[in-house]
Structure formats: C-alpha cells, structure tokens
Write a structure and sequence with these properties.
single chain; mainly alpha; 3 helices; globular
Length: 79
C-alpha cells in the first residue's frame, strides 16, 4: 500500500487529531485519529526500518510520542 494517497491520509489524520486535541480538548478522539494516522505510513513502506533515514524514524517516533501523550491525557480527562 505505497501510494501517494497515503501521504494525504496521514496528513489528514494528523490535522484531525491536532484539531481534537487543541481546540476540542477531546484527547480520546485525538488519540484515535493519531493512531489511525500511523497506519498510513507516508514514507516508502518497502524499505525496512533499519534502512530508513534517521529523519523518517524521528518523525514516526514523535508521532508515536504524541499518540501516547493523548492516551495519557485521555485517562485524566474530567468527563
């Protein structure tokens, strides 16, 4: 599933998660959006993890850290 459309889906879910986290303060929905976004890897999926460029790895690690942060904040929301 290495199509240019993956990049658009990845960016779309990133923007949707950011909207839910920053403007609506709905961290559970933001975590869901960020998690789905990780499924649409914007980089070449045929390249193994060890052969990827360092900047690609850093972007995915930062994305995963934001996802875990949203999950953590969703556990402490006052709903």
């Amino acid at each position: 599933m290495n199509t240019p459309f993956n990049k658009y889906l990845y960016i779309g879910f990133l923007l949707l998660g950011t909207y839910h986290a920053l403007f609506k303060k709905d961290y559970a929905q933001a975590a869901a959006s960020f998690g789905i976004g990780l499924a649409f890897d914007p980089f070449n999926q045929k390249t193994s993890w060890y052969d990827r460029r360092t900047c690609h790895k850093v972007i995915l690690y930062v994305h995963l850290s934001i996802l875990w942060g949203c999950i953590y904040l969703a556990g402490f929301s006052d709903e």
